[in-house]
């Protein structure tokens, strides 16, 4: 769960066999304690509250489980975009919504909507190129590179997601949505370009696609200024902040999420682009203003890369560099030696 108001709670879980997001009396279910058994204070984190659903329901057949009301949204699901054609000037992409996704990801899901957005109508003759933003970002971060993309060969898509959520949750959703689009539109290949934390999300998404047996779908992966070894400030946030955003745990150096990223071999060429013109006083080592070079150039990422390119840019300016744009187009066209 994300941030919940102080109070007393009962934790309920059930096996949603018919996937209608509603508890049915015949479905296996279990709960933790009475309604007053779980007490939580403001900002408190509680672990070890195990709910075990066995082979037989913990609920008597003649006494169906009463699931508490879910609030004003009830059982409503957040909207998911699967190919909505928009422009980068769409109000959903404003910077405030990027911040909302970072700090209030559930609100983002319901009020803004995650998913895949197209910037032009689908064209079966053009290779889809998926752009994935980083923490607190929006698709507008890609404005320059998309404006200079060779649109005669490539069609730009953007993945929009609440960046404060668990990165593996985002990756699972992205892989599922991408497979849905592949079936709906019949495309067989896609290239992925990701910035910063978006590189971690993209790598985890590709791993999911490989696990599903669809590894051939991704033909190229370009990661730009990604913190492959994590971000030390995330670990500090997990340790000291009264409210911990889920993605901080994943971004902490040495996290299980980061350890899993490179255990699945990539099914496609991977190109590592990094920035090094940074002078952050918060980082006591060479950096690009946001991410330490030691994280951008993690050994696991270097070993997986087919080629590595460095740019005299900072963490954000690398996305508006003519040199980077030329390199990206050349990589997509397969013309860089």
The main sheet comes to: 8 strands, mixed
Overall body shape: globular
Mean pLDDT: 85
Number of strands: 12
Helicity range of the residues? 25-40%
Alpha-carbon distance between the two ends: 48 Å
Low-confidence stretches: 57-75
- Count of DSSP H/I helices: 11
Describe the oligomeric state of these chains in a short phrase.
Answer: single chain
Radius of gyration: 21 Å
The strand line-up of the biggest sheet is 5-6-8-7-9-10-11-12
Q: Could you give the order of the helices and strands?
A: EEEEEHHEEHEHEHEHHHEHHEH
| Alpha-beta content class | alpha/beta
Pick out its properties.
alpha/beta, 11 helices, 8-stranded mixed β-sheet, two-stranded antiparallel ribbon, 337 residues
Describe the model.
With 337 residues, the chain is α/β, with parallel strands linked by helices. Helix content is 29%, strand content 18%. The chain is built from eleven helices and twelve strands. The strands form three sheets. An eight-stranded mixed β-sheet has the order 5-6-8-7-9-10-11-12, with helices on both faces. It has a two-stranded antiparallel sheet with strand order 1-4. Helix 1 packs across helix 2 and helix 4 (167-185) crosses helix 5 (197-211). The N and C termini lie far apart (48 Å).
């Amino acid at each position: 769960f994300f941030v919940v108001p102080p109070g007393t709670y009962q934790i309920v879980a059930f096996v949603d066999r018919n996937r209608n997001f509603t508890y049915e009396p015949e479905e296996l279910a279990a709960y933790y304690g009475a309604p007053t058994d779980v007490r939580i204070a403001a900002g408190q984190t509680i672990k070890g509250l195990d709910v075990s659903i066995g082979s037989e329901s913990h609920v008597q057949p003649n006494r169906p489980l009463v699931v508490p009301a879910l609030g004003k949204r009830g059982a409503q699901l957040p909207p998911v975009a699967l190919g909505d054609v928009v422009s980068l000037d769409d109000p959903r992409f404003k910077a405030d919504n990027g911040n909302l996704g970072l700090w209030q990801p559930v609100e983002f899901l319901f009020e803004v909507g995650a998913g895949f957005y197209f910037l032009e109508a689908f064209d079966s003759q053009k290779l889809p190129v998926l752009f994935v933003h980083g923490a607190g970002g929006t698709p507008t971060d890609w404005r320059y590179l998309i404006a200079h993309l060779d649109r005669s060969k490539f069609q730009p898509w953007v993945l929009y997601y609440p960046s404060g959520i668990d990165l593996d949750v985002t990756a699972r959703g992205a892989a599922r949505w991408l497979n849905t689009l592949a079936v709906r539109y019949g495309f067989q290949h896609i290239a992925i370009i990701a910035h910063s934390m978006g590189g971690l999300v993209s790598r985890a998404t590709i791993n999911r696609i490989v696990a599903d047996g669809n590894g051939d779908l991704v033909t190229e992966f370009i990661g730009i200024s990604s913190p492959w070894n994590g971000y030390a400030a995330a670990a500090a946030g997990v340790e000291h902040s009264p409210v911990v955003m889920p993605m901080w745990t994943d971004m902490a150096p040495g996290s299980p999420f980061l350890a899993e990223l490179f255990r699945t071999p990539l099914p496609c060429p991977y190109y590592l682009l990094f920035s090094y013109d940074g002078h952050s006083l918060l980082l006591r080592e060479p950096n690009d203003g946001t991410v330490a070079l030691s994280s951008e150039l993690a050994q696991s990422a270097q070993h997986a890369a087919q080629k590595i390119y460095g740019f005299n840019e900072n963490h954000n300016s690398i996305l508006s560099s003519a040199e980077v744009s030329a390199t990206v187009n050349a990589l997509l066209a397969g013309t860089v030696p």
